[in-house]
Design a protein that fits this description.
The protein is mainly alpha-helical and about 230 residues long. The protein is built from 10 helices and no strands. Helix 2 crosses helix 5 and helix 7 (about 135-165) packs antiparallel against helix 10.
Length: about 230
């Protein structure tokens, strides 16, 4: 069945992997910060932050893509500044596809890390603090290692979401072969071509396999986290 896919389709698969990788990697620090703020801090506007983080889950993906186009397009406030200052263009580029995928996967990543942070025994952090460790050292040496399974699980879920992202991506960066045509866009394109069902079947199978691997990995890490919590108790 692999001969049903030509170089352009393999290129779409490679682009999807690159987009998902960079989307996950670049959004991970922000997800950890957002999850930590929601789990540990009490401040005015915390509810608004929670809503903003989870908004991409309930908005239609096309709406998210349109908002990204307004903000990060060449004529957008942020996009225009990035273009003039750094020469960085996101709209209709693969970097924009990574941004759209990061936004759509961000809530899943934050939620997994947030739940993991809530499961950490605060007494361990307090004990480290009483020994004179500053907050940043407590986080790096106690909190983060205990939260790591949740961080990895969230990253895997976000990666799987990024691999399958379509609506926001095609709205923000279109469907340009070799530049923004990801796996989902390639499947959509083949559906419009007579006789493209065979290639669609193969690409769908690849998508399902990648997603299942990510979900199984996330579940395994969640179980590891549960066992670790049980042992700590």
């Amino acid at each position: 069945m692999m001969d049903l896919i030509g170089p352009e389709e393999w290129q779409a698969l490679g682009l999807s992997l690159r987009v998902a990788f960079w989307a996950t990697l670049c959004s991970l620090p922000f997800a950890v910060l957002a999850a930590y703020a929601l789990s540990r801090w009490r401040f005015p506007g915390r509810g608004l932050l929670n809503v903003a983080v989870h908004l991409p889950l309930v908005l239609p993906p096309v709406v998210t893509g349109y908002l990204l186009l307004l903000g990060f397009g060449r004529n957008g406030m942020v996009g225009g500044w990035l273009d003039e200052t750094f020469g960085l263009v996101l709209a209709f580029r693969w970097t924009g596809a990574a941004l759209a995928a990061a936004v759509m996967g961000f809530p899943l990543m934050v939620r997994a890390i947030w739940l993991s942070l809530d499961a950490v025994d605060r007494r361990l952090e307090e004990a480290s603090g009483t020994l004179g460790a500053p907050p940043w050292r407590v986080f790096l040496t106690v909190t983060l290692p205990l939260t790591l399974p949740g961080v990895l699980a969230g990253a895997m879920l976000a990666f799987a979401k990024a691999m399958g992202e379509f609506g926001a991506t095609i709205t923000f960066v279109s469907n340009i072969p070799g530049e923004t045509r990801t796996l989902a866009s390639a499947i959509y394109t083949f559906l419009q071509v007579p006789g493209g069902e065979g290639a669609v079947g193969v690409l769908v199978g690849v998508s399902i396999a990648v997603s299942m691997i990510a979900l199984i990995g996330a579940e395994a890490l969640s179980r590891a986290l549960a066992r670790r919590i049980g042992m700590a108790e």
